[in-house]
Amino acid sequence: MSIEISHVGKRFGDFVALDNVSVSIPSGRLTALLGPSGGGKSTLLRIIAGLEHADTGRIEIDGVDATRLPPQKRNVGFVFQHYAAFKHLSVRRNVAFGLEIRKRPKDEIDRRVDELLALVHLQQFGERLPAQLSGGQRQRMALARALAVEPTVLLLDEPFGALDAKVRKELRDWLRRLHDEVHVTTVFVTHDQAEALEVADEIVVINDGRVEQTGSPDDLYDRPANEFVMRFLGPVTQLDDQLVRPHDLQIHTRPEPSTVAGRATRITRVGFEIRVEVTTITGQVVTVTLTRNEFLALGLRNDAAVHLRIAPNSPTTAVATTDQPSSTSPSLAASH
């Protein structure tokens, strides 16, 4: 079921949470709303769910005007960051809750709950209380409960934000596989760039209440619309007046056409990559990332004379000034 968001605006007092936002969310796809904290992404998700009402604009779900519909009439499943489980009910009863209040037949409820517990790999934990599950298991239970009523749209608000990094990685891999099985139109909010790039079919980058860019992970990473998108979706460094990914810079030990001269002023190994800081003849600090084999082939050492060039066909974005020395932005998995 597709979602059309047209010219939506939302204020909280003097604070503009959303400013004339228009987005098309394709049917059956997994779409990430990505951006920094306070950018408006959770507000937009809550407006889609009907938990907040837009001041201006229109929301359509599968061609139906849902702008003023209450949440229970939108057939939307919603999963919060902190599970919102019924602590006194078993896992099985938590998953069945939505079906029970809709007064579905008991055999239908039992069959549906069995299917969902198997789908989220919790069939052996059906009689446990939520407190007896791990954080990742509780989040899978919350997803099963949201899917029980067969929603046309599944909305996830920072679904893995309360979990540690290892469990978060496991769950986002699992969410991608789950989505490929159930094919429900899914929208999830995250500020984790790696999460969006790994899981989503489409990414909507939201900042200061406005949409900066919409597209596939490849589109946004390789063809960023502006400086904000390029900085937010991955590491960047600056050479002259161009922002560029550190892995898209080439280092030469001899002058080459269109290269910038400098010296290697710091060399650091970080796991599988080597980070080389180069100070150019103009005093600009540029970070280059190399594989171990590339580094060894160059034979670099501290204070070595080097020459930098942006690799052909690499994504770049012009910046207004080059007054400040540049450094690499936080890693893809870092929080903003």
Automatic annotation (TrEMBL):
CDD domains for the chain: ABC_CysA_sulfate_importer
GO MF terms, alphabetically ordered: ABC-type quaternary ammonium compound transporting activity; ABC-type sulfate transporter activity; ATP binding; ATP hydrolysis activity
Region (Disordered): 316-336
Gene Ontology cellular-component terms listed: ATP-binding cassette (ABC) transporter complex
Signal peptide residues on this chain, from the entry's feature table: none
E.C. code: 7.6.2.9
InterPro entries: AAA+_ATPase, ABC_SmlMolc_Importer, ABC_transporter-like_ATP-bd, ABC_transporter-like_CS, Mo/tungstate-bd_C_term_dom, P-loop_NTPase, Sulph_transpt1, TOBE-like
Keywords (A to Z) from UniProt: ATP-binding, Cell membrane, Membrane, Nucleotide-binding, Sulfate transport, Translocase, Transport
Span of domain ABC transporter: 3-233
Protein name: ABC-type quaternary amine transporter
